[in-house]
Amino acid sequence: MNSFDKIKAYLSSYDGPDVHIMEVCGTHTASIAKNGIPAMLSPHIRLISGPGCPVCVTVTDYIDRLIALSQNEKNVICSFGDLLRVPGSESSLSLARADGAHIEMVYSPVQMLDKARRDPDHDYIFAAVGFETTAPVYALLIDEAERLGIPNVKLLTGLKTMPQVIRWVVSSAKSAGETTEREDKSDEGRIDGFLAPGHVCAVTGYGEYEKLAAETGMPFVVSGFTGPQLIASIFRLVQLRGKDTCENLYPEVVSRSGNAPAKSAVKKYFEPCDAAWRGMGIIPMSGLCLRQDYMHRDAGSFGLTGDHAGRGCRCASVLTGKIRPTECPLFGKACTPQNPNGACMVSQEGSCYNWYVGGRTR
Amino acid sequence: MLEQTVTMAHGSGGESTGRLIAELFAKNFSNEYLDRMTDSSVVPGSAQIAMTTDSFVVTPVEYPGGDIGRLAVCGTVNDLLMSGAVPKYLTAGFILEEGLPMETLRRVVKSMADTAREAGVLIVTGDTKVVENHSSDAKGEGGLYINTAGVGFVPEGTRLDAASIRPGDKILVSGTLGEHHATILAKRMGLENESLESDNAPLDDIVNHLRTSGAAVRAMRDVTRGGLATVLSEFVLSSGQQIEIEESLIPVKKPVRDFCGILGLEPVYMGNEGKLIAVIAPEDASKALDAVRSAKYGENAAIIGEVTGDHGEGSAELILKTPVGGRRVLGPLYGEGLPRIC
After folding, report:
1. Which one of A332, B141, B210, B239 has the fewest CB atoms closer than 10 angstroms to its CB?
2. Residues B148, B167: one domain?
């Protein structure tokens, strides 16, 4: 038996104390589903999809503002595809587009520069959602727009950062454990370790996650995105249960200090600010906003904190690992990928989407 | 002599239309029925015929490995073949936007005629309309849309039906997946490279080889929009039988695999325009595989999995066994996929 087979055998026959592992990156969620990993794990190992899908954590106020902007004839909204179908409080961008609003799907924000230059009469507004991984791309966009003197390129920012929300999830899981009344719910929201987001760490470095491990008393393993990489990382987290260690199992891409040019580009244009997360409320300093000097590039991103998720939608409990997607009363009934009620069912990185499409039951 | 671009006059029904038909369509599609230039063509028939129609709106209209004309023939011919029919006659309806370069139309029509010859069908009647330019194309050139309807003869005793799928049957795919989808998407994104080429092709030779091999084919479908997973999910639904396929056995060319890797796409959900899936009785599987591999466009055929049986009321699923040893349920394609690939 080679070592990979040994790891697989260990994970499928594991009989120790239950281990609840949260993956906080949407790309991990998608890859776990794509590789069929849940079916390889013993019932004592549970994977929980955390708040790492940018579309899923976007509040309805943000979507509503985008829709309002798109209905103004002077604007053209550019967005990544997934965001188009996220329900706002009343409508979605794709419904607004069907009604004639100016919304374009782009593959990269930089595609927007050319359009904006050729069409100076319209403001081109990018729906800038994402985490530390995407922020450098927006920084580059603004950098180019400034350098080339293209004034009509703007951002509606909904950028978020990982460490703060991880802290929030851990403290919320702890308090849920303390206030649980029924014994059979004692596992609700418990987390024993984290798969740290590989791409985010590539930018920020994993130093931040060493601090998180020490603070929370939990293991963090920085993982790559292939099946074998994820399986190896889950294996390490099971072994490290109860230890406050951070291990980097993605060293070919991730260093302790991260990508200095990307970090400095982000720092030049953005600064930390409070941010609203779908279902979680405002988490202090968990977002990135344009700096005062570049406010002329902002399309009105401040104060977008209202969050009016669809009735009965339990996205928030799913995102924080308190319930499995299948435990939401709407799952697969009133909420499907064709007709999503909550954002978690929209995005290809969303936990509900992946559970539904992949037929996951545990 | 035809003009440089299509104008509204070409749709007038008058002299310009006549020249367009004579110098372009009739010349390229010429056959004894079309050449009579009657309001409808009268053609020899058969006791049972299969009929189908399909409209083609792909952008760009020309791409590596094919064009909208080849696609319009293949799409309809392949649909006839999948119901067990021998394709015989096609109609061709053209909707042209003014401003379409005549040279583009000429190439598309020629390609359509070549593909019809290759597939052994006759284009026996047609129609042309010209509409205003609605093109959002950067160059402002007019677009081009084609509808083809097809008639095929169905041999006595032909029965292809997903409901006849039984446990133990093998799943055969006629070649590598995802080329058409990847090619169109790459071209739209400005990421063309010479290693990506559409698989746009008629499947008649593969079907003929399968037929003469004598292998018992339970059901057959061409793998178009929605990809392999969508077709097999429909087989699971209509047969009530679970199907399990091995990811490592699914043929995908390296450039397509690389392209999918970059964009997070999955070959099992990508569209093709020259591939089929056949469900074959277990004892005939290797015979069928040999037959398909010896046919034109079938050299990369593979058996990728099997029907594992009825797993109780309504619980049958399509399972993908992943290379790391995991198992994953595949559903039909959710969401938009890629618009206008055919």
Report:
1. A332
2. no
* Contact status of B189 with chain A (Cβ, < 8 Å): yes
* Residue A359 sits at the chain B interface (C-beta within 8 Å): yes
What is the distance in angstroms between the CA of the first residue and the CA of the last residue of chain A? 28
Chain-chain contact of A107 with B325 (C-beta, under 8 angstroms): no
Q: Give every CB contact of residue B53 below 8 A, 6+ residues apart in sequence.
A: B76, B147, B148, B149, B150
The answer on B209 and B300 residing in a single domain is yes
**Distance in Å, alpha carbon of A274 to nearest chain B alpha carbon:** 31
HEC per residue, A152-182? CEEEEEEEECHHHHHHHHHHHHHHHHHHCCC
Chain-centroid distance of CA B78 in Å reads: 6
* Residue keyed to tokens 């799952």: A331
Is the separation of the CB atoms in A123 and A104 below 8 Å?
no
Task: Identify the CA nearest to A123 among candidates A155, A95, A93, A164.
Answer: A155
Residues B147 and B247 grouped into a single domain: no
Domain boundary among B121, B153, B185: B153
Which of B317, B328, B334 minimises the CB distance to A36? B328
Apex CA B317: angle with CA B313 and CA B323, to 5°?
Answer: 150
Calculate Rg over the CA atoms of chain A.
20
Residue B188 within a domain: yes
The whole-angstrom separation of Cα B176 and Cα B252 is 5
| Confidence at A344, pLDDT banded by 50, 70, 90 | confident
B261 and B206 together in one domain: yes
Is the pLDDT at A182 greater than 50? The verdict is no
Proportion of chain B above pLDDT 90, given as a percent: 78
Please judge whether A358 and B328 are an interchain contact, meaning their C-beta atoms are less than 8 angstroms apart.
yes
Give the domain range for residue B249.
162-330
Enumerate the residues of chain B whose CB falls inside 8 A of the CB of residue A359. 317, 328-329, 331
Task: Report the distance separating Cα B1 and Cα A240, nearest Å.
Answer: 80
pLDDT digits (tens, 9 = 90+) for B170-184: 999 999 999 999 999
DSSP code of residue A309 = P
Are residues B324 and A227, on separate chains, in Cβ contact within 8 Å?
A: yes
Same domain, B116 and B199: no
Give the residue, B5 or A362, on which the prediction is more confident. B5
CATH number, domain at B136? 3.30.1330.10
Q: Tell me the domains of chain A and their CATH numbers.
A: 1-356 (3.40.50.11740)
Is the domain of B195 the same as that of B262? yes
Alpha carbon distance B21, B128 (integer Å):
8
ipTM: 0.71
Higher local confidence (pLDDT), A72 or A359: A72
3-class DSSP state of A335: strand
- Structural domains of chain B, count: 2
For residue B234, being part of any structural domain is answered with: yes
pLDDT of residue A357: 84
- Which pairs count as long-range contacts for A236-239, CB under 8 Å and 24+ apart, including other chains? A237/A19, A237/A21, A237/A192, A237/A193, A237/A194, A237/A195, A238/A10, A238/A11, A238/A14, A238/A16, A238/A19, A238/A21, A238/A45
Output the pTM of the full model.
0.81
**Two tokens at A101?**
């609003």
Q: Which of B153, B177, B210 is the last residue of a domain?
A: B153
Instruction: Assess whether B34 and B135 both reside in one domain.
Output: yes
Residues B103, B82, single domain; the answer is: yes
- Taking every pair of Cα atoms in chain B, the longest distance, rounded to a whole number of angstroms, is 68
The alpha carbon of residue B75 and the mean position of all alpha carbons in its chain are separated, in whole angstroms, by 4
Burial class (CB in 10 A: 0-12, 13-18, 19+), B262: exposed
Are residues A348 and B328, on separate chains, in Cβ contact within 8 Å? no
